[in-house]
């Protein structure tokens, strides 16, 4: 594989176990950057709520892009990201905003692990209000955007959280 990866993206289907997996990696002592969307929702709960994705999807998507770029800029060493710039770009495109192709080209991740749909573990919560059908539609768009950006996704197996974390770490060790 050459040089060890520094920036590792974990993206894929909403409700596919990404955040739980990243929590496990963090528990093991790795640097993890939490999903921008969930952080924005938490900030909006403490603010005026104007940029909730179900209130103003365009404002939410723009904030997700800005946050993802800031996360990328602030990261150093081996860092695992829960969603990022490409994911935010897809959200911007879904709101008919200008697709930020220059940002996708400039801010790159070394490896992409992709969580495929996993309907058996999909649940809604206060932050994830969309249906599984919407999650599947979003998954297809996000997957295609990563492919279009030149990424070669490594698909996560359906397994326990611990086994998934071990599996990722084995691949990074090369």
Description:
By secondary structure, the chain is an alpha/beta fold. It has a single domain, classed as 3-Layer(aba) Sandwich (Rossmann fold). Helix content is 49%, strand content 11%. It has seven helices and five strands. The protein has helices at residues 18-27, 36-46, 57-74, 85-94, 101-106, 132-148, 161-173, and strands at residues 7-12, 31-33, 79-82, 111-115, 154-155. The chain has a five-stranded parallel beta sheet, with helices on both faces. β4, α6 (132-148) and β5 form a beta-alpha-beta unit. α4 crosses α6. The model has no long low-confidence stretch (mean pLDDT 85).
Multimeric state: single chain
Text of the CATH class: Alpha Beta
> Overall pLDDT, averaged?
85
Order of helices and strands: EHEHHEHHEHEH
Number of helices: 7
Largest sheet: 5 strands, parallel
- CATH architectural arrangement: 3-Layer(aba) Sandwich
Structural class: alpha/beta
User: Beta-strand percentage?
Assistant: 5-15%
Radius of gyration: 15 Å
Helical proportion, percent range:
40-55%
The strand count comes to: 5
Q: CATH homologous superfamily - what is it?
A: P-loop containing nucleotide triphosphate hydrolases
CATH topology: Rossmann fold
Indicate the overall shape.
globular
Domain module tally: 1
Strand order of the largest sheet: 2-3-1-4-5
Terminal CA distance reads 7 Å
Unreliable stretches = none
């Amino acid at each position: 594989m050459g040089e060890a990866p520094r920036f590792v993206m974990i993206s894929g289907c909403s409700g596919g176990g990404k955040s739980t997996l990243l929590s496990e990696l963090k528990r093991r002592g790795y640097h993890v950057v939490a999903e921008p969307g969930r952080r924005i929702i938490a900030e909006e709960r403490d603010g005026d709520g104007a940029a909730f994705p179900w209130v103003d999807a365009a404002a939410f998507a723009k904030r997700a892009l800005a946050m993802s770029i800031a996360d990328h800029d602030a990261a150093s060493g081996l860092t695992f990201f829960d969603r990022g710039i490409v994911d935010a770009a897809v959200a911007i495109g879904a709101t008919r905003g200008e697709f930020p192709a220059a940002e996708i080209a400039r801010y790159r991740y070394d490896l992409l692990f992709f969580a495929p749909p996993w309907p058996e573990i999909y649940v809604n919560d206060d932050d994830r209000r969309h249906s599984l059908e919407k999650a599947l539609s979003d998954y297809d768009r996000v997957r295609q955007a990563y492919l279009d950006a030149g990424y070669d996704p490594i698909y996560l197996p359906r397994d326990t959280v611990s086994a998934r974390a071990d599996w990722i770490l084995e691949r990074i060790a090369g």
